[in-house]
Design a protein that fits this description.
Metallo-beta-lactamase, Chain A
Length: about 375
């Protein structure tokens, strides 16, 4: 099925009458990864679910959400988390949920040693928010379904988990993956912002091409022979060797989507990846406000384009617009100027849009209108 991204908020910290704060989800064949959940996320998820029910052939189900990936602790990215968790409890959710996000190396060390957090820990650090949410009922015991709370020093690749039943913090050997995911994975990518932050990448594993069952039947192969070929094993039939690879179509290559969160341009974790099919990157400012972008550790649309070139993205989608940006045209123009000598496509997201990344790696941007989605 490829990947399908739903963009449920494209505003920066201040929402407008047409744009809400951050929150997106990426759907794959094993479940859904939510990336950020600013205030009102549960309502926006519900609205998108109704749209899908009314206009498309499948539904968005909160029961399929396997992981909530937080890019950082600013409230326009996190303040909808606890209400949404409680709403899922009221819906009698019983599936496990992984909640994961970034913090600093100092905080990780302090949590492991059970000492007071460093004095310079930002008030919005996720370590403080996690513990606050636990006190307000955000635990497996209170919610009625399993919730894993994980924080990591992304650059140092050190990850810890809160055991809310004992109050202890446990060091993990590596960044955890959503439970039961085998064909897809999430990865944190280090970014640069005023507090610990990261982007999130969801990628699929390479898959063998479609098995030509019709040809196997036409050759008179029995069930066992077809099963052997489908498993990749050559067989002997009528004194001839049949090669398994000749019964498979072209392999499906890995596809990936990256959501940047708040960051400067050219964030190290994003620029160091070897490529991605879809990069959804913040574009808080236009070129006239480049100094503001630098001072507040955000990106311009042109900066997002430079990042797309560096990480070899195939398709760039702009989002997270500052309140001064009334429409996306200027943002697209400034990004296109940077990308003029490349094959990278650029589009601008609006609330409710869908981005379909096919198994061929190509992205289709569907824009939400009152009566459905259009290209």
């Amino acid at each position: 099925m490829g990947l399908e991204v739903h963009v449920l908020g494209t505003s920066s910290a201040r929402p407008t009458n047409i744009r809400q704060v951050s929150g997106s989800l990426i759907s794959c064949d094993e479940g859904i990864a939510v990336v950020d959940a600013g205030e009102g996320f549960q309502s926006r998820f519900s609205t998108q679910r109704k749209r899908m029910k009314n206009h498309e052939s499948y539904h968005l189900k909160s029961s399929r959400v396997a992981v909530l990936c937080l890019t950082h602790g600013h409230l326009d990215h996190t303040w909808g988390v606890l209400p949404w968790l409680q709403s899922m409890a009221l819906d009698n959710r019983n599936q496990p949920l992984l909640i994961i996000g970034p913090t600093s190396d100092k905080v990780v060390e302090s949590l492991l040693n059970n000492t007071t957090l460093p004095d310079d820990t930002p008030h919005s650090d996720l370590s403080l928010q996690f513990q606050f949410w636990h006190k307000l009922g955000g635990t497996s015991e209170n919610l009625g379904y399993e919730v894993r709370w994980v924080l990591g020093d992304v650059s140092g690749d050190r990850w810890v988990e809160f055991d809310t039943s004992t109050g202890k913090v446990i060091q993990l050997p590596k960044q955890p993956q959503p439970q039961a995911w085998r064909k897809n994975r999430i990865d944190a990518l280090a970014t640069v912002h005023g507090i610990p932050s990261c982007a999130w990448k969801l990628s699929t594993k390479e898959k063998p091409g479609k098995f030509d069952r019709k040809r196997a039947i036409e050759l008179g192969l029995n069930d066992e022979q077809r099963a052997q070929l489908a498993a990749g094993n050559d067989i002997l039939h009528n004194e001839k060797t049949l090669l398994a690879k000749q019964f498979r179509g072209e392999d499906f290559q890995s596809i990936s989507a990256v959501i940047s969160g708040d960051t400067t341009e050219m964030a190290p974790g994003i620029t160091q990846i070897s490529g991605c099919n879809l990069l959804i990157h913040e574009a808080t400012f236009l070129n006239d406000w480049t100094k503001h972008a630098e001072d507040y550790l955000h990106s311009t649309a042109a900066g997002a384009a430079r990042t797309a070139i560096k990480c070899n993205a195939q398709h760039l989608v702009l989002t997270h617009y500052g309140a001064r940006i009334k429409g996306p045209n200027d943002s697209i123009d400034e990004a296109q100027e940077v990308l003029s000598n490349t094959d990278i496509r650029v589009t601008a997201a609006l609330d409710g849009d869908r981005l379909l990344v096919g198994n061929d790696g190509l992205t289709t941007h569907l824009h939400w209108r009152d009566d459905g989605w259009t290209r």
